[in-house]
Write a structure and sequence with these properties.
heterotrimer, A mainly alpha, B mainly alpha, C alpha/beta, A: MetI-like fold, about 0% strand, C: alpha/beta, eight-stranded mixed beta sheet, three-stranded mixed beta sheet, 15 helices, globular
Chain lengths: ~300, ~325, ~400
């Protein structure tokens, strides 16, 4: 009797192991499926023209009609502009707040409020950030509501909490001995913070920034609201309507034209590639600098 | 000539006046940055409320209870989108919880050491893929699959529940929920894994020493201990699913109606804003959508705050014994 | 007291040396990254301004150039707008295909330089336009066709206005109904539920389609929320956004029916039906019979700033005329300086007038037929040019310059 039960228990335990292993497999399925599909469809027409041509005339192949393939130069340029602008805004604010809460206000309740606010802001849905910036810019200057500037402001709202949190963690790992040594050298506090403490925490900071950039590069929702619709032309100015890779993927996905759908897959491949490169760089940076920090 | 901080003789000293100014300016900059973040938090609510004021004043509380959203007839009610949001998120979690917690258990308890890091990183990659790509894939690959294979099967075996009725579009609540679950899984898995890994080794060894099988150890010694952490992970996954826009917009087909079955086309609050914003044609429509954004903000922030509170208590209580 | 700050002659802890030398190489990395970012930004901006690469705007020697003009509205005419924006290089045309309803709202709120709509302004919309008011310029013609997805059915299904109205009212729910079968003798229709697809947004295509339904079916004409309008309270069906959304939905959903401009049906190879005209003939829309419908409608255009609400080219009397033809109208303010103030420069105004004149000129209209839009008749072109010549800037006239 006992023997039966113990076998049953063991079998049951094995069964659960198999189930949980299946869970892992099940989770991998969408990952593999999405990446496979993107590689397959996005890589089908990979050529240099993808990077230099503008969007083609919308068209589906018909007997007697060949469609232009076109290229993604406008969405690519737009994404670069958006990333640059939003980082310009978000990174100083995030690092500044992290410096404040770790270096200046560590014991004060104010610092904990900042930490809490950062955590809360990290949970703001991206569409709400877009709606917020829309309402905000509407108050300030209605003519630039649909523009690259507005889009990058919304992305900055999403980036700031990530940068602030990761920088805060990175700064906290800097041992106090470093700070004290710096101050003991007699340099002013701001120099000590910037050139010694911040620099010691640089691996974590760079990782955090790259993480935030990777996230904002892939966001489409706020851009749907704020970027307007200027993908068919080379981008004009920052205060004009713009375009970006994730936005174009959405437009191409919902187009009935086969050549736009094909371009959207190519854009998805490029976007995945960009995010992969950013992740790899951030990981390399973290490893290499952390190694040097440990000794040698 | 007395200086408060002694310095080695060869260290140069900038004139104290300049370094004081440097310190002051630096402090000011850093305080401004901090203030900006706090101001941002406040501004989120204030600006959205201000932008939505026309709708708040005109429609009032009825906004939360009206079951119709029809700009053409100037009727604005958020119930269809609220229900859509809740239903899609609930189903997404129903899928994400067993898969996510199961995966976390496997990763921490069963997986050989060399497997853990790569698999964890793969799961992180799942989280890094932009949701618009998931939505695109869902639209092109999953929707036809659901229309031709998935929905007929569901109807055949589960149609008696009444949940799987109506035309099999392929698009709709069920497909959107499936894609949404993919986005919730990494959050649930990561936090569950961390919570389980935080269970002290002594617990596990004690359970093993009295002859428990792996599963019994997990179930009786590990899970109860990690329970609040896992719950926090689930709630955070819920928060993520509630705010998810692109994957849903592309697969739910954007119809502002109350879903009557899982095959129905529907709308969530994020997909409402994403889909209808740029084309709003009546004066109240944008304020109404800003009001919807505000409601979504309140819901997701409350859920996130709640989850973090639970997580904090879990981490604080870790040193104390098991429940 | 010389020496660089931070340099200590006393033996530093090894951590300090490491920190400092790390600091130097770290600073170098920092600098490199910053330089790369700045270079990328500059390159991006330069590309955007057209200084390098790609299609830079070639400036015409005699005409004004360089402005960015924003239009919004009808999705029906969007492919033509795309073709125009790719072809016209003197200035940059951005067109947001958001639906005629949103186009009218946008021009009313002055967020765009011109609005495009397949539906003329109704009296309420006209009254809502702030001073100095707009002119109505018909700029191309198209047709609304019923599209469907019935894999086993080849050729063009026959439809009448009555049948279409019944389908969209929900009175007919199955393809294999006697009403549909009777006008399609010899075609086997599947016994399947009709999946009705309509527009979710305020749409001029809807206006044209619903006008046709109203003319054919009294229940539709008098029903609450029905009738002819850009926004309908649809009794049944699935909503999709824009002509492209309806096309995509019908393309991917079996047994569905929708209504779109003929360009979308032909460009994407979607089956569309023949519609019965007042003469009793079932007409498969093509450029010829749409053009003849417009000619036979013999429309006398109102004054540019007048009431265009009753202008229609539907149900033309000719035997072979296609019954659901429609113009697409542009709405532009009569005085651009008064309307937009200083944010709209005289150069921009001149650019806009040049663009409009180009659109309605033989050159601009020559882009229409290859993408299934009917070009304007020469009489209409002349009329439009006269209208465009009445557009002023702060009272001063703007002579259109055709390159």
């Amino acid at each position: 009797m006992n023997f039966d039960r113990s076998v049953r228990r063991k079998v049951f335990s094995r069964g659960m192991t198999v189930l949980t292993g299946l869970a892992i497999v099940a989770i991998m399925v969408p990952l593999v499926a999405v990446i496979y599909e993107t590689l397959l469809l996005g890589g089908a027409d990979l050529n240099l023209g993808l990077f230099t041509n503008g969007l083609p005339y919308p068209c589906s192949p018909q007997p007697g009609v060949t469609c232009q393939q076109g290229g993604l130069v406008v969405p690519i340029t737009g994404t670069i502009e958006l990333i640059a602008l939003s980082s310009l805004v978000a990174v100083p604010i995030g690092i500044g707040a992290a410096i404040f809460s770790v270096e200046y206000g560590r014991e004060s309740p104010f610092a904990r409020i900042v930490g809490l606010v950062s955590d809360v802001l990290a949970g703001v849905p991206s569409i709400v950030a877009g709606a917020f910036i829309y309402a905000l810019v509407l108050l300030y200057d209605p003519s630039i509501v649909f523009s690259t500037i507005s889009g990058s402001l919304a992305l900055a709202v999403l980036m700031v909490p990530i940068v602030a949190r990761t920088c805060e963690e990175a700064l906290r790992t800097v041992p106090n001995s470093v700070r004290e040594a710096a101050l003991a050298l007699g340099i002013s506090r701001w120099k000590a913070t910037l050139r010694i403490t911040l620099v010691s925490a640089l691996p974590g900071i760079v990782t955090g920034v790259l993480l935030a950039v990777a996230r904002s590069a892939g966001e489409a929702a706020p851009l749907l609201l704020l970027l307007g619709n200027a993908c068919t032309h080379p981008l004009q100015g920052l205060n004009q309507e713009g375009c970006a890779l994730p936005l174009f993927i959405y437009q191409g996905a919902t187009a009935p034209n086969a050549n736009y759908i094909a371009l959207a897959w190519a854009a998805a491949l490029l976007l995945l590639g960009l995010i992969l490169v950013l992740s790899v760089i951030s990981r390399l940076t973290l490893n290499r600098m952390a190694k040097r920090m440990r000794g040698g | 000539m007395s200086e408060p901080t002694p310095s080695p003789p060869s260290a140069s000293r900038k004139p104290r006046r300049v370094s004081r100014w440097g310190d002051r300016i630096f402090l000011a900059l850093v305080v401004i940055a901090t203030g900006a973040i706090i101001a941002l938090m406040v501004a989120l609510f204030v600006v959205l409320i201000y932008g939505a004021r026309a709708s708040i004043q005109t429609v009032g509380w009825a906004f939360l209870f009206t079951k119709v959203w029809s700009p053409a007839t100037n009727v604005y009610g958020i119930v269809p989108q609220l229900v859509g949001t809740l239903v899609t998120s609930a189903i997404a979690l129903l899928i994400a919880i067993p898969l996510g917690v199961g995966a976390a258990i496997f990763l921490t308890q069963q997986a050989p050491g060399w497997l853990r890091a790569p698999v964890s990183q793969l799961i992180e990659m799942l989280a890094a893929i932009p949701s618009v790509i998931y939505g695109f894939w869902g639209l092109i690959v999953l929707v036809p699959l659901m229309r031709n294979v998935g929905e007929p099967i569901l109807y055949t075996y589960l149609g008696w529940t009444g949940l799987f009725s109506g035309p099999e579009y392929g698009l709709g609540v069920i497909t959107a929920s499936l894609v949404l679950s993919v986005m919730a899984i990494p959050t649930v898995t990561a936090i569950s894994r961390d919570s389980i890994a935080a269970v002290p080794r002594s617990q596990v060894e004690a359970a093993l020493s009295i002859g428990g099988t792996d599963w019994e150890v997990t179930r009786r010694a590990v899970l109860p201990y990690a329970r609040s952490g896992i719950i926090a992970g689930i709630v955070l996954g819920l928060g993520r699913a509630l705010g998810e826009t692109m994957a849903v917009t592309l697969t739910i087909c954007n119809n502002n109606v109350l879903p009557t079955s899982l095959f129905s086309l529907g709308q969530t609050i994020p997909s409402l804003i994403a889909n209808d914003f740029f084309e709003a044609a009546t004066p109240l429509e944008i304020p109404a959508m800003l009001e919807a954004a505000l409601i979504l903000l309140i819901i997701t922030l409350s859920i996130n705050l709640g989850a973090r509170a639970v997580l904090l208590r879990f981490q604080a209580g870790r040193g104390v014994g098991a429940e | 007291m010389s020496g660089t700050s931070g340099n200590s002659a006393n033996s530093p802890a090894s951590g300090d040396t490491m920190v400092r030398s790390k600091g130097k190489s770290r600073t170098a990395l920092y600098a490199v990254v910053a330089v790369v970012v700045v270079v990328v930004i500059i390159l991006g901006a330069a590309y955007a301004e057209g200084w390098i690469g790609g299609s830079s705007k070639t400036t015409s020697t005699t005409c004004a150039s360089g402005a960015t003009l924003n239009g919004a509205g009808s999705t029906l005419v969007a492919p033509l707008m795309v073709a125009w924006s790719l072809a016209y290089t003197a200035s940059t045309l951005n067109y947001a295909s958001v639906g005629s309803g949103a186009g009218i709202t946008d021009i009313t709120s002055k967020t765009v330089d011109f609005g495009a709509s397949d539906a003329p302004l109704n009296p309420a919309q006209r009254a809502a336009i702030p001073s100095p008011g707009v002119v109505t310029i018909p700029e191309s013609a198209g047709a609304v066709v019923p599209i469907y997805n019935l894999p086993g059915v080849s050729g063009h299904l026959h439809f009448t206005g009555q049948v279409l109205a019944a389908i969209y009212l929900g009175a007919i729910t199955n393809w294999n109904t006697s009403a549909i079968q009777a006008i399609n003798v010899g075609i086997t229709l599947p016994h399947a539920n009709i999946i009705v697809v309509h527009r979710s947004d305020g749409s001029g295509t809807t206006f044209a389609f619903s006008s046709f339904l109203s003319a054919s079916n009294a229940t539709w004409k008098n029903g609450a929320g029905l009738g002819h309008s850009t926004t309908i309270t649809w009794p049944v069906g699935v909503a999709s956004k824009g002509n492209s959304g309806v096309t995509a939905t019908v393309q991917s959903t079996s047994d569905s029916i929708g209504y779109v401009d003929i360009n979308y049906a032909l460009t994407n190879g979607v089956a569309f039906g023949a519609v019965q005209n007042p003469s009793g003939n079932y007409i498969v829309a093509n450029l010829t019979n749409i053009a003849s419908a417009i000619k036979d409608s013999n429309v006398v255009f109102p004054a540019p700033t007048g009431d265009w609400y009753n202008v229609t080219v539907e149900n033309a009397p000719g035997a072979q005329d296609y019954p659901i033809a429609t113009y697409t109208y542009l709405f532009v303010y009569t005085d651009l300086g008064v309307a937009y103030g200083s944010s709209f420069s005289k150069n921009a105004a001149q650019n806009l007038v040049d663009l409009l004149a180009w659109m309605v000129s033989p050159v601009g209209q020559s882009y229409a037929p290859s993408i299934y839009y009917v070009p304007l008749t020469s009489a209409t072109m002349t009329n439009d040019l006269k209208t465009i010549s009445t557009i002023t800037y702060n009272g001063g006239s703007l002579t259109a310059c055709v390159p």
